[in-house]
């Protein structure tokens, strides 16, 4: 690591360098991500916003190391993800990413504690340490009393908090939340968003993917996508963050 | 993820759908229990055979003379001389002459087998005298009209005390000189205790040919059986110069041949039973493929949390292997049950003490094979699971 002067901004964690993702649909080539560049730094709370078909899901898959770009570079924590094989991607996901999904994606056959322990299990953490860290994460999510409960016995909001605890347990560099409130009523959704804001205040880097402007407004910074291109990148509440802008802004925070 | 965690996960998955798991295991259970029962049956048969032959004497050589192409038949004296000349390999000999004529006590006709024998017959067969005496050399020399009877004859017709009584054999009166101890476990009409022995010289006179067509030799010990057989065969060939004129059969050879035949039969039957193991394996593969489809989303979640292909592969292979191994253990238990049931039935129906005994080897092999089947047939579905694209898997409903 290079020694960075105190005045310089926090190191960049997620860096898209002219990223393209193309799909072949019959004879047609779909440009899901069409030359996107931006940088998200450590400690940021950024929302990637766009309608369906805007390319935000593909972006999220690439950020989440579930997919690799057709061309261009994606650097996660300074490492070029495009050059990695399947096992390296899995290890990178395990170490640096915590996923929060719209459908919670808990494993129904495992209880709350076992679900939260899963990323630690794949990370090779020892049994006692695993239980300790999982319990600590569940405590942060306010679910210490539900360790032995199974997901189908919990409310939607509780399930989503379990999945947040699971994302926190591995102590990831980035928390990647894909429509985290999509399946919740507005009150529970607000609670989850406030929890994310609190996590951000505690120093976590959070990337929120959503189609909903009012949800995106909880983030500090908004990256708006349309047809695979960035059409706005700036602070939330800024000019053009909601209204679609014509000119592209380059990725600087 | 290490093996123990995979193992616990597999047990959990199997336990969470008990009926399905049991049906999945059924092929393996049937296959393993069938193989164990069949191998046990064959093993029991071999033990039983060996026991029976041991009681007949594994050092025994049986000589049958057909005398084909010869005007003269080898004499009993020449056979006795053979034993005297070869003390290193041959121990004793007795002629055995079957008597066709009927035996009668008063007006009752006996169903007993009547055999003419030499004085060494009892020691060769391992029979012992309960009352009176056996057939002696002077009886043979003088063609004394004496007989030795089995315990069944003595008990049935003379109430036990038979010495001095008279039996008419082919019209001639024979005095009972001795009674044998029980030979078989239970004295019955069809058993080996229903016999009458007379001096072979008398028996030979009653037969059509007037000559003796059958002898029983004993070798000094089991190791010299082959050498003894050669000695007897050489002597007979020197006499007849035609090896179709006689046959020499060693009991130990018959035992070996029968054991070989049982082994072949058991191998074929076990092979047929093992086909159901393969069918069971295909059943496991089928259910694992269904299970992988059903759990696509779970696989996606695990991958998003950092599971490598290897982790997923292990999870499913171990699940298949554990399913199959549990089937194997159940099959072993059922195999034992069937074996003891078969033993009970055989003892009850056939009045023999044959026990169906599964071998430790067949049990270990059955267990090993069922685990191997799980691994082999679980591999394909597991690989399918491991190679799933995490994005597609996460959005699978």
Summarize the entry for a quick read.
The complex is a heterodimer of chains A (253) and B (397). Chain A is α/β, with parallel strands linked by helices and 253 residues long.
Spans where pLDDT lies below 50 across 5 or more residues of chain B: none
Structural class of chain A: alpha/beta
What is the CATH T-level topology of chain A?
A: Rossmann fold
Average pLDDT of chain B, to the nearest integer? 87
CATH class of chain A: Alpha Beta
| Total number of domains of chain B | 2
Quaternary class: heterodimer
Work out the strand percent of chain B. 15-25%
Give the CA-CA distance, first to last residue of chain B: 26 Å
How are strands sequenced across the largest beta sheet of chain A?
6-7-8-3-9-10
Q: What is the CATH architecture assignment of chain A? A: 3-Layer(aba) Sandwich
Biggest β-sheet of chain B, characterized? 12 strands, mixed
- Major sheet of chain A: 6 strands, mixed
* Low-confidence sequence ranges of chain A: 244-253
Total number of helices of chain A: 7
Mean pLDDT of chain A: 87
Query: Rounded to an integer, what's the Rg of chain B over CA atoms?
Result: 33 Å
| Cα shape of chain A | globular
Polypeptide structure, described:
The complex is a heterodimer of chains A (253) and B (397). By secondary structure, chain A is of the alpha/beta class. Chain A is built from seven helices and ten strands. In chain A, the strands form two sheets. Chain A has a six-stranded mixed beta sheet with strand order 6-7-8-3-9-10, sandwiched between helices. In chain A, strands 2-1-4-5 form a four-stranded antiparallel beta sheet, covered by helices on one side. Chain A starts with 11 loop residues before the first strand and ends in an 18-residue tail after the last strand. Chain B is an alpha+beta fold and 397 residues long. Chain B folds into two domains: 190 residues, no CATH class; 178 residues, no CATH class. Chain B is built from 13 helices and twelve strands. In chain B, strands 1, 2, 3, 4, 5, 6, 7, 8, 9, 10, 11 and 12 form a twelve-stranded mixed beta sheet that branches. Chain B starts with a helix and ends with a helix.
